[in-house]
Design goal:
Blueprint lengths: L8 E5 L3 H12 L3 E5 L5 H18 L5 H9 L1 E3 L11 E4 L5 H12 L7 E4 L6 H5 L8 E6 L8 E6 L5 H13 L3 E6 L6 H4 L1 H12 L5 H10 L7 H8 L1 H14 L10 H9 L36 E4 L4 H8 L4 E2 L9 E3 L6 H8 L6 E4 L8 E6 L5 H11 L5 E6 L6 H17 L5 H12 L5 H8 L1 H15 L8 H9 L8
Parallel strand pairs: 1-2, 1-4, 2-3, 4-5, 5-6, 7-8, 9-10, 9-11, 11-12, 13-14
Antiparallel strand pairs: 6-7, 12-13
GO biological process, one term: fatty acid metabolic process
EC number: 1.1.1.157
Keywords: Oxidoreductase
């Protein structure tokens, strides 16, 4: 199938937001589009919205007026599914209802050519289930775009168990023609991006559930220390709890309750309470009519304590000693019995460090040096800690304008836990062959706007350090939620990159 041919026609079933976006990028790619919607007048209304967006692109100078005029002529309306019969590719973009999709595909098979490709824009339903009753399941695949389609460059091409290789190749080429970057993925719950994206939000929720940190603290650390555009809590509020909670449950149940994909009761409580985020003006935060956060809580630990003049180390640590050297604080060779005791653990909590080293847990302050600390630095203390010791360290760290976030005791702080969980889940996707390491990183950066691919994130942390964080989390919590992927363990033990194939 020559998807690059002039006048190549793409049928689109469903003229809602996703269908409109798919039709628009197909038109911009030089395809003809035949648009169908079951609702009377739905396709016509969708057409007008598409034309309006194209006109605005002309106003902004991004498209030429004559080119848009040609695009408008290339869009036609199909009153019935039978009118899509001449299209070599039909993309279904209706809402997530398995029986509805099956009925659409069954009807399309009566009218399209034998070599026509039928693709579903489903974000969560298995392609195998959609194609189950099709006469020719080998021509059925997933073509999962991301919302808003014109802005999101990724498209997942999902191969069902019977999808022919040439069908996946043709859809990937069509995706390129539409200006998208295709990533070919095996059929699995949540596919690649929706499965891989579970770690960021569910581990953020876990930190709140454990009373380790507030949503504002978690979001600030992930943005300012780890380079994410949005923290997990504000991201959930933006996409909607009514979207991310059901998807989390679909993926969790689809993977037969793998604890690495489990969410927490608070997530369900927000969903059932109707605190869905910006759309309801309340989620993790409260919002005004314009989507601005009301009474935004501060993630900063502010104190008027005097900066610590003298500290000791719980154990030798060259990186921590070098960092403290830049602050001009005196480091005593041994504990003087009154000064704060500092440590910079990887994976451990302050309690574990105190027990292992014999340090006085009341004066022990743990500092996270694992991420970017130019703008914000995270500290934590064990239960029963002396607030004066904590505050004197916070004041020391804030001397040069750096903001400080003080959290409760947690194996791996905030940044280590979240990045390790993101990386571990992506290592597992590589382990089971969901996609190649390169495609996993590409998809997660394009589909979720991560600052770097999750496997690259593991390499930046260090495979051994990432493994240590997970091992400590699993040991200290007793939860298999944190069990390391074999992909990660083997590469960490061998000193290899997380992207190493084989």
């Amino acid at each position: 199938m020559d998807v690059k041919a002039e006048g190549f026609a793409v049928g689109v079933v469903g003229a809602g937001a996703m269908g409109q976006g798919i039709a628009q990028v197909a038109l911009e790619g030089g395809c003809k589009v035949v648009l169908h919607d079951a609702k009377p007048g739905g396709a016509e209304a969708g057409r007008e919205l598409i034309f309006g967006r194209l006109d605005r692109l002309v106003e902004k100078g991004r498209l030429q007026a004559d080119a848009v005029a040609g695009m408008k002529e290339s869009l036609s309306i199909a009153p019935a599914l039978a009118d899509l019969g001449s299209c070599p590719v039909v993309v279904e973009a209706v809402f997530e209802d398995l029986e509805l999709k099956r009925s659409i595909f069954a009807e399309l098979e009566k009218h399209v050519a034998e070599d026509a490709i039928l693709a579903s824009n489903t974000s969560s339903l298995p392609i195998a289930a959609i194609a189950r009753n099709c006469a020719r399941p080998q021509r059925v695949a997933g073509m999962h775009f991301f919302n808003p389609v014109p802005l999101m460059k990724l498209v997942e091409i999902i191969k069902g168990p019977e999808t022919a290789d040439d069908v996946a190749v043709a859809l990937a080429e069509l995706g390129k023609r539409m200006g998208r970057t295709p990533v070919t993925v095996q059929d699995a719950p949540g596919f690649l991006v929706n499965m891989g994206g579970r770690a960021y939000t569910t581990e953020g929720m876990r930190l709140i559930h454990e009373s380790v940190a507030t949503p504002a603290q978690i979001d600030a650390v992930m943005k300012e220390c780890c380079g994410f555009r949005m923290g997990p809590c504000e991201l959930m509020d933006l996409t909607g709890i009514d979207v991310n909670y059901p998807v989390s449950m679909i993926v969790y149940e689809g993977y037969l309750h793998d604890p690495r994909l489990k969410t927490v009761p608070l997530h369900k409580a927000l969903y059932e309470a109707g605190r869905l985020g910006r759309k309801t003006k309340a989620g993790h935060y409260r919002y005004d009519n314009k989507g601005n956060v009301l009474d935004a809580p501060s993630p900063d630990h502010v104190t008027d304590a005097a900066p610590a003049a003298t500290v000791s180390l719980a154990e030798p640590d060259a990186a921590l000693e070098k960092f403290l050297g830049g602050l001009g604080v005196k480091i005593t060779a041994s504990d003087d019995g009154s000064s704060p005791i500092l440590c910079a653990p990887i994976g451990e909590d302050a309690t574990s460090v105190a027990v292992r080293t014999g340090a006085d847990h009341r004066r022990l302050v743990a500092i996270d040096l694992s991420a970017d600390i130019s703008k914000r630095i995270t500290i934590m203390t064990a239960p029963g800690a002396d607030a004066a010791a904590r505050d004197s360290v916070a004041a020391l760290l804030a001397k040069d304008g750096c903001k400080v976030t003080a959290i409760k005791d947690s194996p791996g702080f905030i940044a280590q836990r979240l990045r390790a969980m993101i990386g571990n889940l992506s290592c597992e996707m590589a382990q089971v062959g969901l996609a190649s390491p390169e495609e996993i990183d590409l998809a997660m950066t394009l589909g979720l706007n991560y600052p770097q691919g999750p496997l690259a994130m593991v390499d930046a942390m260090g495979t051994r350090a990432t493994l240590r964080v997970l091992e400590q989390l699993q040991a200290l919590t007793g939860e298999d939620r944190y069990r390391p992927s074999l992909w990660l363990r083997r590469r960490a033990l061998l000193g290899l990159s997380a992207k190493t194939a084989g």
